[in-house]
Write a structure and sequence with these properties.
27% of the residues lie in helices and 18% in strands.
Length: 162
């Protein structure tokens, strides 16, 4: 009985490793089947996130049209997803004819101005421009050019420790 208590963690570990390798093999098989479904004219997404159209399929390579008249050779393993025609046209060309109405699509702003809470008028915006001679000019309101009237330029709480 004491031997089972010692062997139980090892048995559980071996079982977990078996299940992980089995699921990895299953995913690898599905990816290979997906890549074998590619035909000329199919829309694909590479693992780098580029969308293209398949022109030719070889044994280990694929000729992709990445832009009109621009072709590139990719390894089959570089294909991340084979897309159906409706999804490819929606992503690449912006077509919304695939049954989804304009009201169903999320509204994405062109800039980040709509993400700012509060007023949208120009009076509350901070000045983020670079000041040309900020280091050379004396601080405003100080006639002698010192900070808070101190000659050594240290602000309150500064120390002379070296």
């Amino acid at each position: 009985m004491d031997n089972i208590g010692v062997l139980l963690p090892f048995i559980v570990l071996i079982g977990a490793m078996f299940l992980m390798t089995r699921s990895a093999k299953k995913k690898q098989q599905q990816a290979m089947e997906m890549r074998n479904q590619m035909q000329p004219g199919t829309g694909v997404r590479t693992i780098g996130g580029m969308y293209a159209t398949v022109k030719e399929v070889g044994d280990d390579t694929v000729l992709l049209e990445v832009a009109p008249g621009v072709h590139a050779v990719y390894a089959k393993n570089a294909i991340g997803a084979v897309l159906d025609d409706d999804e490819y046209n929606r992503i690449v060309h912006g077509d919304t004819d695939s049954g989804a109405g304009a009201d169903d699509l999320p509204v994405v702003p062109d800039d980040a101005s709509s993400l700012v809470a509060g007023d949208t008028d120009d009076t509350a915006k901070p000045d983020l421009t670079k000041k040309a001679d900020a280091d050379d000019a004396p601080e405003e309101g100080k006639a002698d050019g010192t900070i808070d009237g101190k000659a050594d330029g240290k602000a309150d709480g500064g120390t002379d420790a070296k």
